[in-house]
Amino acid sequence: MTSITLRRPDDLHLHLRDGESMRAVLPFTAARFARAVIMPNLRPPVTTTAHALAYRQRILDALPPQPTFEPLMTLYLTDGTDAAEVDRAKASGCIVGVKLYPAGATTHSDAGVTEMARVDGVLARMEERDLVLQVHGEVTDAEVDVFDREARFIDEVLAPLAARFPRLRIVFEHITTRAAVEFVLDARPGIAATVTPQHLLMNRNALFTGGIRPHHYCLPVLKSQSDREALLRAIASGDPRFFLGTDSAPHARSAKETPCGCAGIFSAHGAIELYAEAFESAGALARLEAFASEHGADFYRLPRNSGRITLIRTPWEVPRSYPFGSEDLVPLRAGEQIGWRLAETQ
Ligand code: NCD
Ligand code: ZN
């Protein structure tokens, strides 16, 4: 197959940042995806409906005129979030979920939740109003091995949470392990997961190939080959509980190439193309469209997009860097090839 046409996809997990940085990265996503769920981990975090609507407007103002693109907003859950905020979010019609960052789990998560019991009232209201909870699923205990933090989170936090709020719809974001795949497959209805391109295409060796590779560092960190194979089997199965969320997370080169580098991989410049590679490697290219353009929309109860994109199997070389405000950033596959190219968006 040398070309593939898909219904326009949605990115259900995206970091856009703000200001000049946002303007630098937004066109990559808008060229490919019709909608994206915009993560709220700005500084200060997007904790209220008013903040989210103002951020949404800044994104709309920064968009190129074509093709159309709709930002779907989410609120940053804190210990202090008021249940009434859930009502306002739902009433806005622009906010699809609330994001749980365990405090300290990842980039800009220090305002996150310190103890689940503190947000029970908010979760109960979300369940009632049917707002989706998006979960960064890692425990933060420094004693727990960094490669075990997702699996521990399932047992200690996610499984009990899903049981305590049986009608709350939950997206387990950027899953990385076989344990997470199995949790989703065995879970009650209303539980789904996003899968990133990096966790499908790389295992943890990619952090150390020929030396330390800060641009391959993200959270949750890359896992073992057997975990990666479990993710590939999950997406190749066509199960609707797995869908596209890039977790594209731009950081300036200077914040990555430093003694204590930030977590986050930028993939928006070639996101759908990278997923095409992953599906092709799993012998499941025919399942890409449902994963990218149907499962996420259906889970969020949004209409499927009507436009189309076409990808052709023509390798192209990724630039070594892209401008990023006053700095630059190093994209995934910098200076290397991606096997598929975006040919057209309608
Ligand atoms: C994200 C970021 O940079 O905002 N980083 C990452 O490694 N994925 C935060 C997150 O989603 O964990
Ligand atoms: Zn993220």
Structure description:
- The chain contains 12 helices and 15 strands.
- The chain has 346 residues and is an alpha/beta fold.
- The protein has one domain (9-304): Alpha-Beta Barrel (TIM Barrel).
- β12 (322-324) and β13 form a beta hairpin.
- The radius of gyration is 19 Å and the shape is globular.
- It starts with a strand and ends with a strand.
- The mean pLDDT is 97.
- Bound molecules: N-carbamoyl-L-aspartate and zinc ion.
- Zinc ion binds next to loops.
Short description:
This protein is α/β, with parallel strands linked by helices and 346 residues long. 34% of the residues lie in helices and 18% in strands. It has a single domain (9-304), classed as TIM Barrel, CATH 3.20.20.140.
